[in-house]
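Bumping my old thread because nobody answered last time. Still need a sequence for this structure:
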């Protein structure tokens, strides 16, 4: 007997997928029918974790009321026939100098960008690219400052400056420690009942943080490489987890490079909230905020009302042509 339905992609491993009919957590395997390509997309993965897909599966008539995991097996997987329209998604260039792109996740209620002031040290241009992409594709973003138990008095000025820059730009920041539990309850309340993306570079503790939110989960946890203070990749595939307290988290492999996709240079400033607000008072429209006289954005940078670090990230995005590391 042929059954049809809709389900959410919760894991992608090569050409195989795991689906679940959220909010119920009942995993079953699936494969793609032929080649599904999104119109106008150069994405290397036409189906991403978080996508709602239409599927069909052949099942025995006498088990049609059983859980999907019992009706659909690896030997007899469901077939994904189409993808439902996305509410939003996060996308990046798939590799350095590549014209192709990779969809990190789709239909996300909020992105939690996990960073560390130190161990490893945060790279602000990378964070700003993530934030710009969230703005472009309508994904609300929260910055999660992890490993707060490791920061001493020598980090006080750095922490204060970071809060001033990003809270000044309008982004909420939550300080947490997966090791001590600081801020974990607050973070758990924020993800409860939602589909949340956890993203960041390797080594910032995403997997440890997910395990702190729900100790029953077993995301792979790695260590920091002493040579470069970079995290060793532990999460190999994009995967969604169901939290016992409610909600779903998409964990991503540690990202080393993040290139902007489908964004014209003259549009970039629109996705820096603090620059967008100041730009209303620029003498010229459009204004690149680089050389024009009477530029309110440059005046705000000089006055300290807009962070020079954020402005420097913006200039870097203007100058990049294919490279982004």
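Sorry it took so long. Here it is:
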């Amino acid at each position: 007997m042929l059954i049809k339905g809709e389900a959410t992609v919760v894991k992608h491993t090569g050409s195989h997928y795991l689906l679940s009919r959220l909010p119920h957590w009942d995993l079953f395997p699936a494969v793609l029918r032929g080649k599904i390509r999104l119109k106008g997309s150069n994405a290397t993965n036409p189906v991403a974790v978080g996508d709602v897909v239409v599927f069909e599966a052949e099942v025995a008539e006498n088990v049609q009321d059983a859980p999907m995991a019992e009706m659909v097996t690896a030997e007899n997987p469901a077939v994904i026939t189409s993808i439902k329209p996305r509410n939003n998604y996060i996308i990046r260039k798939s590799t350095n100098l590549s014209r192709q792109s990779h969809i990190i996740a789709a239909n996300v209620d909020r992105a939690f960008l996990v960073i560390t002031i130190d161990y490893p040290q945060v790279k602000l241009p990378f964070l700003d690219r993530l934030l710009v992409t969230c703005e472009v594709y309508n994904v609300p973003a929260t910055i999660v400052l992890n490993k707060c138990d490791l920061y001493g008095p020598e980090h006080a000025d750095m922490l204060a400056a970071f809060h001033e820059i990003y809270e000044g730009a309008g982004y909420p920041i939550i300080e947490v420690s997966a090791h001590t539990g600081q801020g974990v309850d607050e973070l758990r309340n924020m993800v409860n009942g939602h589909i949340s993306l956890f993203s960041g570079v390797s080594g910032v503790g995403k997997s440890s943080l997910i395990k702190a939110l729900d100790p029953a989960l077993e995301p792979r946890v790695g260590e920091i490489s002493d040579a470069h203070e970079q995290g060793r990749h532990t999460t190999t595939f994009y995967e969604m987890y169901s939290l016992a307290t409610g909600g779903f988290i998409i964990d991503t492999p540690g990202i080393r490079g993040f290139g902007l996709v489908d964004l014209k240079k003259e549009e970039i400033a629109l996705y820096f909230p603090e620059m967008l607000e100041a730009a209303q008072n620029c003498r010229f429209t459009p204004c690149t905020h680089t050389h024009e006289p009477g530029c309110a954005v440059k005046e705000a940078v000089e006055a300290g009302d807009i962070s020079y670090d954020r402005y420097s990230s913006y200039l870097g995005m203007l100058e990049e042509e294919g490279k982004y590391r």
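The longest strand covers residues 2-13. Let me know if any region looks off to you.
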